[in-house]
Amino acid sequence: MTHSSLPGYFGPLFAVFLFVLGLCVGSFLNVVIARVPLDQSIVRPGSRCPKCGHVLSWYENIPLLSWLALRARCRGCGAPISARYPMVELLTGLLYFACLRRFGWSYELVPALVLVSLLVPLAFIDLDHWILPLSMTVSGMLAGIMLAIPLGTEALRDALIGAAVGFLSFRLMEYVGWKVFQREALGAGDKYLVAMLGAFLSWRALLGILLFASMQGAVVGIVMLLLTGRAGPRAEEAEPETPEGEVPPLTMTWEFTQPGLPFWKRLLLVPVCLLVQPIPDAPLDEEGEEEEWIPERTSIPFGPWLALAGLELLLLGPWLARILPPDIAMMLGAVP
Ligand SMILES: [Zn+2]
């Protein structure tokens, strides 16, 4: 794989182009982070100030520069604009650049950029709302499998096994945690994120992802607990409720518990339920309704840590393979 088959002076030019593309994608990811968890359209309406509704014109919407030029204030009402907007843009730009450094101008750059563009918003959504939207993780998993096709049958097989093993292993941990400890050890959305990571990075990376995510999450969680009294962020708002009578997405238990369901159908649903049924997030109250889950002081959202571990294995593989003993590097899925 040649890292630059382009004439010398074009290389830096295209690298700058990719960085700027990353900034623009990051600007769009800010919209995704703000709207997807609230089930709002990411296309319409255009960006506006969350305080006063002031519609942003094109020159107020330029990644990084607008935030600097506006001195972090809305032009309509003067409300401060969070530094997180330019931060997400810059982060995405830098990660795009890092992907180029890692893969060069090869086909592998495409799935890498797609994975980055999924992991950045998923991490921030989980930090804000303690959820990982299925619309992003499940379609991300499918994208990971599709993007492996041009890499050949072996890559496709690794992606399929990665998605299946990632999902099933976390599903099993979730099930055991619920049976043994009678409580939720993992967020219900985590297994879909791990399936997505397995699809993009193959099953070989799964053990490394699990290890890196738990170790870093535990260390930072403990430090945060000592410093701020909380291991994770506070839940700012309740999740949007499913309207009455409507089937919540992917909840087989809903159908399973309906009275008057024929016995054979119930029997058929058992294996399906075991696989896809979300484990109740919270104990049920007297009316059998799920109580709203509120993160405890020691709760840590796992999604951001899984995303970070995925990025580390994606981008630092060759470096890890160099510094770690070969056996351990192979076990962690660090490919040279
Ligand atoms: Zn405003």
TrEMBL record:
* Cross-referenced InterPro entries: Peptidase_A24A_bac, Prepilin_IV_endopep_pep, Prepilin_pept_A24_N, Prepilin_peptidase/N-MTase
Q: Which residues cross the membrane?
A: 12-34, 105-124, 130-152, 159-181, 201-227
Q: Which residues form the Prepilin type IV endopeptidase peptidase domain?
A: 113-222
Q: What is its EC number?
A: 2.1.1.-, 3.4.23.43
What GO terms fall under cellular component here? Answer: plasma membrane
Bilayer topology: Multi-pass membrane protein
Q: Keywords of this protein's UniProt record, alphabetized? A: Cell inner membrane, Cell membrane, Hydrolase, Membrane, Methyltransferase, Multifunctional enzyme, Protease, Transferase, Transmembrane, Transmembrane helix
Stretches assigned to the Prepilin peptidase A24 N-terminal domain: 20-102
**Which reaction does this chain catalyze?**
Typically cleaves a -Gly-|-Phe- bond to release an N-terminal, basic peptide of 5-8 residues from type IV prepilin, and then N-methylates the new N-terminal amino group, the methyl donor being S-adenosyl-L-methionine
Q: Provide the GO MF annotations for this entry.
A: aspartic-type endopeptidase activity; methyltransferase activity
Major place of residence: membrane
Please state where this protein is localized: Cell inner membrane; Cell membrane
Gene Ontology BP terms: methylation; signal peptide processing
Family to which this protein belongs: Belongs to the peptidase A24 family.
This chain's function reads: Plays an essential role in type IV pili and type II pseudopili formation by proteolytically removing the leader sequence from substrate proteins and subsequently monomethylating the alpha-amino group of the newly exposed N-terminal phenylalanine.
- Name the PANTHER family on file: PREPILIN LEADER PEPTIDASE_N-METHYLTRANSFERASE-RELATED (PTHR30487:SF0), TYPE 4 PREPILIN-LIKE PROTEINS LEADER PEPTIDE-PROCESSING ENZYME (PTHR30487)
Protein name as annotated: Prepilin leader peptidase/N-methyltransferase
Higher taxonomy:
Bacteria, Pseudomonadati, Myxococcota, Myxococcia, Myxococcales
